[in-house]
Design goal:
This protein is mainly α. Helices cover 84% and strands 0% of the residues. The protein starts with a helix and ends with a helix. About 15% of the residues have low confidence.
Length: 98
């Protein structure tokens, strides 16, 4: 009985390991990594300035949400979607810095 359970457990563990690896082993393109870094730095700079106008604070919050979403997408290997969100966040932060 134990001999038949051992391979079954091994099979389940193997499937779990491969399923959890998913897209996390994929490395994002250098251009995407640079864009993510640029957006994060801009967000930090805007946050340090501390916009007080409610509309500008909402715009900063929107940029932060897009950046967070893009980081999750990069982790999942969804690079195209991450790039789209980062381009939007970059536009928002650039507008806030001007």
């Amino acid at each position: 009985m134990l001999k038949s359970i051992g391979p079954a457990i091994l099979a389940i563990l193997t499937c779990t390991v491969f399923a959890s690896a998913g897209g996390s082993n994929l490395k994002p393109p250098a251009e995407l990594a640079n864009l993510e870094r640029e957006v994060s730095l801009k967000i930090a700079h805007v946050r340090d300035q501390g916009p007080t106008d409610p509309a500008r604070r909402k715009q900063l919050a929107d940029a932060e949400a897009l950046d967070t979403k893009a980081e999750q997408e990069i982790g999942a290997g969804n690079f195209r979607s991450a790039q789209n969100d980062l381009v939007k966040a970059n536009a928002l932060t650039t507008e806030l810095l001007n």
